[in-house]
Give the backbone structure.
Amino acid sequence: MFDNMIASLREKSPLIHCITNYVTVSDVANMLLACGASPIMADDAAEVQEISGIASGLCLNLGTLHRSTVDSMLLAGRTAAERGIPIVLDPVGVGAAAQRAMAAQALLRELPIAVLRGNVSEVKAIAGVASSTRGVDACSADLVTPETLPELAAFVTRLALALHCTVAMSGAIDVISDGRATYAVFNGHPMMPRITGSGCMLTGVVTAFAAANPGSAVQASTAAYAAMGLCGEIAHAALRPGQGTGAFRSNLIDAMSLLDDDALRQGMKVCIF
C-alpha cells in the first residue's frame, strides 16, 4: 500500500512551490531537499503563476500571514488547479485571529485543496468546532489520546467528506482521512513540537509525497506523516549526552535524507479504521 513512495519521490524530484512561513522557510526548504524534492520559495504576486506553472505541487502555509500573501496564494492556486497538481493547505493559527479564519475559508472555497493539514485545534477551527488556541500551537485540551482517538477519527472522516479533500490532523497520534479511508499514525517523538517549524516541514513533506505519488492523497499523506514521525524517533535516538533541540533539528533533517522505503516499511506504525 505504501511501497516505493520514497523511491518515487527521489526519482521524480518534484518541484514544490512554497508560499510559506518566513520564520521556517529555510527549514522547509532543507527538509524538502532531504526527502528528495526540489523547493522553490516564491510569494510575489508578479511571479507566482509562472512558478506554479512549472511546479509539481503547491504548499500554502498561513504562518506569517499578510493580505498580499492571500492574493498570491489564490493566484498560484488557480494555476495549480488548472494544471491538476496537488495543493496542500496548512492553516497555521487559524483559530487565533479573524483574518486567518477568513483567509483559510477563502482558500478552501476558491481552490481544489488536495490536503488540509493542521493540528487538532486548527482542524477544529476550520470545522467551526469550539476550541481554545495558543497562537500557532494546539491547545492542551485538544490532545489526541487512545481514548479520544475513535471520536477524533470519526470527526476527521466527516470533515474530509464535507470538504471533499484529505484532512490530515497532527497530534501525539496523527489522523488522516479522505472520507473513505481513515488512518492513524503512531510514529513521532515528543521533542518534535519543541522546535520551531516541525509542522511546516511536515506540510512540505506531505506536498512532496502527494506530488510524487499521484492517485491517492490520503495514502501519500499517511506515508509522509509516518516518515516524518519515524525521522523524529531516529533524530532523538541519535542525540548524544548534552545535546538538545538544536541538534535534534539537524538530526531530523539528516534522518529524512537517509530514509528509504525499507526503513519506512519496517518502522512505520500505522493502523486503518
In short: The beta strands are 15-19, 38-41, 57-61, 87-90, 115-119, 166-170, 174-177, 182-185, 270-272. The CA atoms of residues 37 and 208 lie 6 Å apart.
